[in-house]
Design goal:
mainly alpha
């Protein structure tokens, strides 16, 4: 039997949506000094926006996933991308730190649910033998956000202001929302039990201990990584004594800080 064509473009749409959502999550880390200066708060308070975001995801992800488990996946993904876009534009327009924090909480509530929708979506687009390849395509969106998305957003924020950077990312979210509407097919995410199968209570699932160990390991690793990445810009500037314009590639600031001889790349 011939395998169906690999839906590469559809998976790229999911990957792109993940890319822009992860970029929006960590965008404050690259613009931390800029946001603190304009909002009139300390850099630690802006760093708390990342903590608030993460804590909201932890608290809301499971309950929202449970409440929406019977909702169709495609409309739910479209709705969540819309929430992200509105929250990013709301952050850009918020005059005070407190209002920025509120918009970040709204985005965070959508974030955990977004992962519960997008993570298994690829498994409904491909047969089992193509699943690993499909997951690698969609997972690349999150990795790409750290490598390209956050630095590019930081460079944009340095050049034109952090508010415009947030607004631009919100606009890109809308682009991917349109791509989801146009190109992603609806999927059946509720798998009915086969004849003779019964639901297994979680307490009888022998894989639970291994899953708990993996989850705890991820918590330790991500806590360390996010603690450093949140304050990497102040660290590079204050401890590493790098010029502010070098925290992300920014042609205007690099040339300005380099003097007549040009930038020393």
């Amino acid at each position: 039997m011939t395998a169906p064509p690999f839906p590469f473009f559809r998976l790229l749409v999911i990957s792109g949506a993940i890319f822009v959502v992860v970029t929006s999550e960590f965008l404050p880390t690259g613009l931390l000094p800029d946001m603190a200066r304009e909002l009139g708060v300390s850099q630690a308070q802006v760093g708390l926006l990342v903590t608030i975001f993460a804590a909201t995801v932890v608290v809301t992800a499971v309950p929202l996933t449970s409440v929406t488990r019977r909702f169709p996946r495609k409309p739910l993904m479209i709705f969540l991308l819309g929430v992200f876009a509105v929250s990013m534009v709301g952050s850009a327009l918020s005059p005070t730190y407190e209002l920025v924090a509120v918009t970040r909480v709204i985005a965070a509530a959508a974030h955990g649910l977004f992962w519960s929708v997008t993570a298994p979506y690829a498994s409904r687009l491909v047969p089992r033998e193509q699943l690993a390849r499909a997951i690698s395509v969609t997972g690349a969106g999150g990795t790409g956000a750290f490598i390209f998305g956050v630095p590019l957003g930081t460079a944009l924020g340095h050049a034109l202001g952090w508010r415009l950077a947030f607004a631009v990312v919100g606009g890109v979210v809308l682009v991917f929302m349109a791509l989801v509407i146009l190109f992603l097919p609806p999927v059946q995410h509720l798998v009915p039990l086969a004849t003779g199968e019964i639901m297994l209570p979680a307490r009888h699932d022998r894989t639970i201990p291994a899953i708990v160990i993996v989850c705890l390991t991820v918590v330790i690793l991500i806590t360390g990584q996010n603690t450093l990445s949140t304050y990497v810009v102040p660290w590079v500037i204050e401890v590493g004594t790098a010029p502010p314009g070098r925290s992300a590639w920014s042609p205007r600031e690099s040339w300005a800080t380099a003097g007549p001889a040009g930038p020393s790349w």
